[in-house]
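Hi W.,

Here's what went into the run:
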Amino acid sequence: MPEPECIISIEDLRKSFGPTTVLRGLSLEVSRGEAVVIIGPSGSGKSTLLQCINQLTPADSGRIVVDGIEMTGSGIDLNAARQRIGMVFQDFNLFKHLTALGNVTLGPIRVRRIPREAALERGKHELERVGLGHRLDHYPAQLSGGEQQRVAIARALAMDPSVMLFDEPTSSLDPTLTGEVLDVMRKLAQEGMTMIVVTHEMGFARQVADKVIFMQDGVVVEQGPPSELFVRPRDPRTVAFLANFEALWGGGEAGKRP
Amino acid sequence: MLGIVPFLLRGALISIGLSAVGLAMGLLLGIPTALLKTYGRGIPRAVAVLYTEIFRGTPLLLQLFIIYFGLPDAGIVLDRFTAACLALGLNSGAYQAEYFRGALQSIDAGQITAARAIGMTQTQCMRHVLLPQLLRIVLPAWSNEAVYIVKYAAVAFTIAVPDLLARGKMLVSWHWRPIEVFLTVAALYIAILGTLAHVMERVEKRVRIPGLLLEAGRER
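Here's what came out:
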């Protein structure tokens, strides 16, 4: 069996904002096709980690390599590199002056310089893929939260990324709308997209993740397949977090069996 | 009464000319100033702040007098029309900078982050994400400024620019009845401003996008 190819490699990542150290020498690896879910308490640095991967937040030190490109290297064309990394944000961040189709085709047309016709075709295809083929001409203000997030996913996919980063994609959605977004993400994972998802949706982590990473205080505390990490956590901090989680949100997603 | 209209119309053309030049100059000054105040640092930003403080903190009339009567002492002599345009332009630019700055700040930074995440350069972000929204958000305030400037251009009268108001005064000094003259002048102003307001409204309707308003924060 061929060795799983390492597509994202993060070594000793450090980041501080003024006096506050958020990432303290974090290291992790993601293989091609892997779906990785990162869990952890607020302030553990999960979002900062994602933003460092595409250097939207520049790392203070450490080495990040994505699909062969050293993001932390000097002289790197970050704009070109970012085209290969898709990112989905907690607050959707759709372009408010463009329709769903406009949002999805802006990148391909203006950044990748794909001819308009081809970009429109591709855009429609991506929107259909996330179940929004009937909302092409709607503006973000006319879409529900779940629909907006799905447009955001389609927007990222239209750029043909080799990895997708999801930063708490359902945290801004009311519970009835999270399902439709998680379904899209589950499908993506099944189709083999390499993805890193920061989320509190434990059910999703159990069902979809190949690997779950528990972060606290800016480092990786423990990682493993969901069947191990959720059932037999080794580190006492992981145990405490999962117990707390069950206590706060108990019975809900966290209580679901895979 | 109608007989004086052609005479007044020549003045109206000057009023409109002054306003148009002032507005355009204000636009060219206002946008960079707003960008400097929002994103700039150090000396360039200080210059922008100083500019808006001075020109919004003093009367337009004073600014006009300094430019027309004061500058010659420093060796810069301008003709009336240029002086009037300059005063209107500098004044409008300071106000327009504030409208643009307000509009800029109402566009959430998340959209720029998302644009950079798909590989756009800062310039592409400005052109494809920021500017289209900025122009739409600022339109109501900007239309207002256009209307105001037509009215304020009347200060040119004080340095003897033969604008609409000045021509009215001329007629009165040639013994036309003041009430007739000034009501006609008023009617002309109303006609000009009414047309302007109507045009701006049509433009606003055409470029309107659901959900894109100055009160963007209230949309959720």
